[in-house]
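This part of the workshop introduces the protein records we will be handling. Getting from the letters to the tokens is the skill we practise here. The record below serves as our worked example for the rest of this section.

…
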Amino acid sequence: MELSVRKRNIVLSILFFLPVVFILVMLLSKDNYNPLDIVKEGVVELPSNSENIQLKDHITILSFLGKKPLENSTAAFNLKELVYDRSKGFKTFQVVMLLPDNAKSEAETLLKEIKSYEDLRFWHLVYISESDIKKVFNNLKSEEELDENLSTSVVYIIDKDLNQRGRIDDRTDEEIESNKPVYSLYSYDCVEVAELKNKMAAEDMRVLFKEYRDKRKGEFDDSNQRRSKDLKQTNE
């Protein structure tokens, strides 16, 4: 009987102290994470535009909607639902869609369909010349090309300092264990729901927002950023 009571007391002690230990470990541990890689430095700033939209000092999702925006409605809707709605609370966040002037009427129609009583204050349609659209796009690190309508279904992340962000090593854990060749992720396909939802929204944008929050608090350690830069140089 005495042994049984002793066992019960031990079990109760463990059940009592285990949550306390867990909380202490969580409080004392440092929240380490890998910042989102810089895949290209010095992205060109947007030319002067009537909307007065710039990339500098913003976290931007940059899109090329092209001459026929309605043909890219699926990509636009996915971007709005899966990324924009989750990110618009961050005050320097914006979505910038580049279009030529002659696409304005069709773009406004698309915007009305997307809006439907929701807040799109941080969603900008920017009209610039075709040559300027090409200039901005050609300045990016990309494995994609603009089509004949100056559009693409992929989008790019540009940080406050005009750096393009992405993944230098986009391999899965299984691919790394199997020693598969390194491949990168420079852009995010808005037609590929899994890529947009699981990589861009759930991971990469969240990590980038955290980086800037930590910088604002003076808690950011850029050693991981330096390591990612070394990896990038190794693979170039």
